[in-house]
Design brief:
Blueprint: E1 9-15, E2 21-27, E3 38-39, E4 51-55, E5 61-68, H1 73-84, H2 100-103, H3 108-120, E6 124-125, E7 134-140, H4 141-148, E8 152-156, E9 162-166, E10 171-172, H5 174-177, E11 180-184, E12 193-194, H6 206-209, H7 217-220, H8 233-241, E13 244-245, H9 247-253, H10 257-261, E14 270-275, H11 281-291, E15 297-301, H12 314-325, E16 330-335, H13 342-353, E17 358-361, E18 363-366, H14 367-370, H15 372-387, E19 391-395, E20 412-413, E21 421-430, E22 436-439, E23 453-459, H16 462-465, E24 491-494, E25 497-500, E26 506-511, E27 514-518, H17 521-537, H18 550-564, E28 565-566, E29 597-598, H19 603-608, E30 617-619, E31 625-628, E32 633-636, E33 639-641, E34 648-652, E35 658-660, E36 665-668, E37 674-683, E38 689-699, E39 707-708, E40 723-724, E41 729-731, H20 732-735, E42 746-751, E43 757-766, E44 774-784, E45 794-800, E46 806-814, E47 823-828, E48 836-845, E49 853-864
Parallel strand pairs: 13-26, 14-16, 14-17, 15-16, 17-19, 19-21, 21-25, 31-38
Antiparallel strand pairs: 1-2, 3-10, 4-8, 5-7, 5-11, 6-7, 8-9, 12-18, 18-20, 21-22, 23-24, 26-27, 28-29, 30-33, 32-36, 34-37, 35-36, 37-38, 39-49, 40-43, 41-42, 42-49, 43-48, 44-47, 44-49, 45-46, 45-48
Helix pairs in contact: 1-15, 11-12, 12-17, 13-15
């Protein structure tokens, strides 16, 4: 459904502290001149060695994301900075899951304007993610060309791969362009790069042997008793053969033993791993069997996933790295396609779900290849993660300071993003602890080097520019030129931290059925992710996630550097040898190793300190309650914590026969006629608490009480009393006006995805006996874009017994029953008097007709009299 669009709006342009253009929207007087059409971003840069081979076929199926600006970029940036900066009153006062769209997401008017524009141009518009920052669209190359006034050309790349690219930036009408940040998916020129490497052979080459080689180091320390996982004999013997270390050796080097000794192995923390390739689950099982671990590893496919098979070892490395170092953390592996919308959608899915507070990515793309529009859109997405308490650890690259594949200086995205922790690389020559380390630079044998340098896309953030001079963040190699910083200012510097990455002092992993050694900053990033998971789970943090860690890391380095970090002062990351040794290692911070590697004995306590105290807990009163003796009760009490901590509930004064669980659900059957005052209290892990009181009257059971049986019949309390699949019970603001409630703000929206999908919404009710009338009523609205004369997508209403068996199918509707507005339906339910039953609506979308069908339900009632 299309929402109305307000009159044209005036634009105010300002420059944010990060140098990004901010667009503030304000209402214009009625009748103001309409804004002219505008092209958003730029056409992608095509490599000089790419050969044009003709236009893209008009019938080619395409998918893209139209990325929207937040309603106030300046406000979002300010909040993201505040919640991640130690000492700020908002420090770690993260948004709760689902709050972002209402506070910082695009306005409903903006979503409606852009959606209407896209539909009017013939593109199929999909459902928005929970943050409302992107609108998925699909169509053919021809329809995209017409919609955006662009062409598409195909190119043969030097690798032989055939790619395509739009010849111009996409054009939007002025009414929509002011809300659009970028469009991704219009080209396939550049693929994200894996940042993992293996040694040139199982043993060092002669050239490498003349350098400071770690050979023999792993053999001298076959394993280290750390209190954490211990490797099996096969992994131990694989270490020296592959120039690699086992997890226990790395844990010992970085002094994770103190965390393990305190019983901390990451319990309760979820780590999301970003992947653009598959892996064999059998590899992960073999690794866990070797180490005696049982970490929960879950796979979430995005946009169809990343394919099947063993992959190239990146995913196995990332997953096993976290398991070996934080074995009791939950690991969610998000797998998306490499190219088009895949990388953005995969990040967006991780951040929208907001179930993982630690995110690891070992994929990257040179800033110049990524493109400014995509980089800016990612920046918005990573700010979103920061407001929710999610911290992203990203590999900084494996080609040194020349990470764009030439002799020119350049850095990788997303490691260079201001709201991401970039992780560089070192070489361990002795385990210690503390380890003896150099900057990773194996130029002599083509073994890679740790990425680092000056960003051409981002100004230097406050946590770097405000660091004390003793840390040397601003130094003789700092520059404001690559990013065009204001006079006297500098550009973002990378990396922020580092860890072992040299493939000649690599990581022992189980890949494609055998043990091997792998290195690269791909290994360093998940090592830091494991460390952050251990830190979040530590008693020092008391359940509060570190989130985006950079401000806290630089603050920790300023306060107690030698206690919290291992400094790297030897080497440089000039991999090609053409940039005069840029960038050299030095005391404290440098652009070859960042702040250094973690000291697990000191850094966790420093990172956990400095948080705000005095969390506020709010419990929502459900209002006065009236029930009948013998009638089952199910009442969910809700509450919130200003620090986004989990709450534990208790209650006093409950009627006899009722109890409350720790999640706030009151259940049972009242046994005694009485009136009481009930107080429900919720408490967080910091002992902060809040309470709400309300009256509860229990009346005698009568033969028939005139009543309405459904709880939350208009869905105005969200999912309260209803059971539903994700994203079914929504508010008007969450849908952006695409579908709306029949009354009030909330309703149930089943299906409408345009892919095979099943949604359900149901509620269990006890139907009393002894009444004369039993009437179920509800309002139903059906939208469809199916063109078939057959029932392609269906909505079925069924009655289930207490065991889930189907007692009756009351009605079935389909795309053939599409209607304008809501339609009132009523059913006689007297057959179920005296029974406890479940009413269940099931929407099934088959997508065989190539369109979508939306089933909406609202204003329900089950009246007895």
């Amino acid at each position: 459904m299309r929402a109305s669009v307000s009159a044209a709006a005036a634009l105010t342009v300002a420059v944010s502290p990060l140098g990004a253009v901010l667009v503030a929207v304000s209402s214009s007087p009625a009748g103001a001149a309409q804004l002219p059409p505008e092209r958003i971003g730029q056409a992608p840069l095509v490599r000089l060695d790419a050969v044009a081979v003709g236009p893209l076929a008009a019938a080619t199926a395409m998918h893209a994301d139209v990325l929207l600006l937040p309603r106030s970029p300046a406000a979002l940036s300010s909040y993201a900075t505040a919640v991640s900066t130690p000492g700020d009153p908002l420090y770690r006062h993260y948004l709760r899951r689902g709050q972002f769209a209402g506070r910082f997401g695009p306005t409903p008017a903006a979503i409606a304007a852009v959606s209407a524009s896209l539909r009017s141009k013939g593109l199929l518009v999909g459902r928005l993610p929970s943050d409302h920052l992107s609108i998925p669209v699909s169509g053919t190359a021809s329809s995209f060309s017409k919609a955006f006034s662009i062409g598409f050309e195909r190119y043969r790349l030097p690798s032989g791969r055939i790619a395509f690219a739009n010849t111009k930036a996409p054009l939007f009408p002025g009414s929509a362009a002011r809300y659009v940040q970028a469009v991704i998916g219009l080209d396939s020129l550049y693929l994200q790069q894996r940042l993992d490497l293996r040694p040139a052979s199982a043993h060092a080459t002669a050239a490498h042997a003349t350098a400071a080689s770690p050979h023999g180091t792993a053999a001298a320390s076959p394993h280290v008793v750390t209190g954490g996982p211990q490797p099996c004999a096969a992994a131990v013997s694989a270490g020296p053969d592959n120039d690699a270390y086992t997890a226990d050796q790395l844990a010992s080097a970085y002094r994770f033993s103190s965390l393990y000794g305190a019983g901390d192995e990451g319990t309760g923390v979820t780590v999301a791993i970003f992947e653009l390739e598959p892996n064999l689950t059998s590899d992960i099982s073999s690794y866990q069997a070797c180490y005696g671990t049982s970490a929960s590893v879950n796979y979430i496919e995005v946009d169809g996933g990343a394919g099947t098979g063993a992959g190239e070892g990146e995913a196995a490395l990332d997953i096993e790295d976290v398991i070996g170092l934080a074995p009791k953390a939950t690991i969610d592996v998000y797998q998306g396609p490499n190219g088009g919308m895949g990388p953005y959608d995969t990040y967006n899915t991780i951040i929208s779900k907001d179930t993982a507070k630690v995110i690891s990515t070992s994929w990257g793309l040179c800033e110049s290849d990524a493109g400014s529009s995509s980089i800016d859109a990612e920046n918005t997405l990573f700010q979103t993660a920061t407001t929710q308490g999610q911290g992203i650890l990203a590999a900084a690259g494996d080609s040194g300071s020349e990470d764009c594949g030439s002799t020119s200086l350049g850095v990788d995205d997303p490691a260079s993003q201001p709201y991401v922790t970039g992780v560089g690389g070192t070489e361990i020559t002795a385990l210690g602890p503390p380890p003896t380390q150099n900057v990773w630079n194996e130029s002599a044998v083509g073994g890679g080097a740790g990425g680092g340098g000056v960003s051409s896309s981002h100004a230097m953030p406050a946590y770097q520019s405000g660091a004390p001079s003793s840390l040397h963040v601003v130094n003789s190699n700092s520059s404001g030129s690559p990013c065009g910083a204001a006079t006297g200012s500098y550009c973002r510097e990378v990396p922020d931290v580092s860890a072992d990455a040299d493939p000649y002092s690599g990581y022992v992993v189980y890949y494609n059925g055998s043990w091997t050694g792998i290195g690269g900053t791909s290994a360093a990033a998940p090592l830091w992710a494991a460390f952050m998971a251990l830190t979040d789970a530590s008693s020092k943090c008391a359940g509060k996630a570190i989130g985006f860690a950079n401000p806290a890391l630089y603050s920790a380095a300023a306060a107690a550097y030698s206690t919290d970090f291992n400094d790297i002062t030897s080497g440089n990351n000039d991999y090609t040898g053409t940039n005069n040794g840029l960038f050299p290692a030095g005391a404290d911070y440098d652009m070859a190793s960042g702040l250094g590697t973690p000291n697990g004995a000191g850094l966790p306590a420093t990172l956990c300190g400095g948080g705000s105290t005095g969390n506020t807990v709010t419990v929502v009163s459900p209002g006065a309650q009236a029930t009948t003796v013998g009638s089952p009760v199910s009442l969910q009490i809700s509450g919130s914590d200003s620090g986004a901590l989990s709450l534990t509930y208790s209650a006093t004064g409950l009627p006899a026969g009722l109890s409350i669980n720790s999640s706030g659900l009151i259940t049972g059957t009242p046994t005694t006629v009485a009136s009481s005052s009930v107080t429900v209290t919720a408490k967080d892990s910091t002992e902060a608490s809040g309470s709400a009181s309300f009256s509860w009257a229990v009346k005698a059971k009568s033969s028939c009480t005139v009543t309405q049986l459904l709880g939350n019949p208009g869905f105005e309390s969200g999912n309260k009393t209803w059971s539903a699949t994700p994203d079914v019970i929504l508010s008007n603001s969450e849908t952006g006006g695409a579908e709306v409630a029949e009354a009030g703000q909330y309703f149930a929206w089943l299906d409408g995805y345009g892919v095979p999908h099943t949604d359900t919404v149901s509620q269990r009710i006890a139907v009393p006996a002894g009444c004369s009338t039993y009437t179920l009523s509800y309002h139903q609205h059906i939208d469809t874009s199916e063109v078939s004369s057959k029932a392609i997508d269906t909505l079925k209403l069924q009655v289930l017994n207490s065991s889930g068996g189907v007692l009756s199918s009351l009605s079935t509707y389909s795309n053939l029953n599409a209607n304008s507005g809501y339609r009132l339906l009523t059913l006689n339910m007297s057959a179920y008097a005296g029974r406890t039953v479940t009413l269940k609506w099931t929407g099934v979308e088959t997508d065989t007709g190539g369109g979508t069908t939306d089933f909406c339900i609202d204003t329900t009632a089950f009246n007895v009299s």
